[in-house]
Amino acid sequence: MSLDITELAISVRDLQVRLGGVQVLHGLALDLPAGRWTSLVGPNGAGKSSLLKAIAQLLPYEGEVRLLGQLVQSIRRHSRAQQLAWMGQNEGGHDDLLVYDVALLGRLPHRPWLAPASQADHQAVEQALRATQAWDWRRRPLGQLSAGERQRVLLARALAVQAQVFLLDEPLTNLDPAHQVECLQLIRQLVAQGKTVFSVLHDLSLALLADDLVVMAQGQLIHHGACSDKASHLALEQVFDHRIQITQSAGHWLCFPRF
Hints:
The chain is of the alpha/beta class.
């Protein structure tokens, strides 16, 4: 049964994207219910990042994108930035900024133009930096951090927005296993608070820890279903040419290479 539009965090219809004259997304239709974590997976070049960037209004597109029931174009940019938090992969810049100031950028949508940060802004930043275990580096320039430490600061910037919807493109990149687990726990905490998370994940076993799975290949939507559904596992194995297999162990679905 289809969901009422007010129950959807993200909805796209006939979404098409061209990059350099090449069509990379081919008329996608997708509905993501609010309050759930959905993983977006597929082979390299499937169009995963392009889909997230189009939803985040970072790429030009044709078609329709709705955020929390409203056409994105009808939402004022300031309001949209409060509702939607973005974290991209391999983001550059900010190297000369202190870690604290990078995280504080996530509070810009909540402040009038040129207004100083409020007490609520500082509280949100401290909470985000502590949640990602980056508080101890708050006075260090971002450029002095390792790739994994930098990733945690960028995640803190996204958390500081305190948005309803989070788009995370490879949030686990450069993180060691312990901090990957902490990041996934943070995602679960967001969902428990009623937030919606749509994340691209490279590690398929970690992607299967989400509530739902969106499988893409060659710019097209192949499957959308619960991570626990057999149909989701079959679709995942199919787009990777059956070189992987999904099995259950200790109550979790895991991906293994098929030799």
